[in-house]
Amino acid sequence: MGTPNDRVPLAERVEQLLAGGGPLPIVTAGDPVLRRASEPFDGQLEPALLARFVEALRVTMHAAPGVGLAAPQVGVGLRIAVIEDPAPVTEEVAVARGRVRQPFRVLVNPVYAPVGGERAAFFEGCLSVPGYQAVVARHAEVRLTGQDEHGRAVDEVFGGWPARIVQHETDHLDGTLYLDRAEPRSLSSHQAMAERWTQPTPEEAARALGFELP
């Protein structure tokens, strides 16, 4: 049995969210909306409302701040996510992690598949799991298919850090949190990260905390 809010039509629920103005409240782990597969987008929001919702996701992502945000993270079970990464890191970190600037993108009904068998493991966090990070081994390169906010087909290969971002956000749309894929022994508070694990790779953390990297 759903909550009363679950029974409100999606368009009406989005209108209610947007009525508050400013960044939207971010849903945190423990809310069932983060554990459900999202409904494929098929015109549930008319174009003007979709545009307003996408802009609200962008504003919320920037304010958090983060490099991606999926609709379930603001309580809307639609298969929509936004990503953007200015990559404000040192050259050493950028090279080690394959982190490059990712312009703003809207992903509608995204699905990813691995390209090759290479995996990369790095610390990762989530706006819906505040205060912590953990090492996640993900596909180093993926092919992403879906649409953009205008209904145009997307079929693109992502590598490096952008590949990690699209996997993380697409997982949200399937009801999966990064912790489901993380190495449990790597779980670290933001304070521990700042004091101990600022290195470009998690190799030192793996030795000290006792977990293996791929």
TrEMBL record:
SUPFAM superfamilies: Peptide deformylase (SSF56420). Binds 1 Fe(2+) ion. Its cofactor is Fe(2+). Keywords: Hydrolase, Iron, Metal-binding, Protein biosynthesis. It comes from the Bacteria. Gene3D superfamilies: Peptide deformylase. Pfam families: Pep_deformylase (PF01327). InterPro entries: Peptide_deformylase, Peptide_deformylase_sf. The keyword Ion transport does not apply. The active site is at 169. The keyword Hydrolase applies. Its EC number is 3.5.1.88. Belongs to the polypeptide deformylase family. PANTHER family: PEPTIDE DEFORMYLASE, PEPTIDE DEFORMYLASE, MITOCHONDRIAL. This is Peptide deformylase.
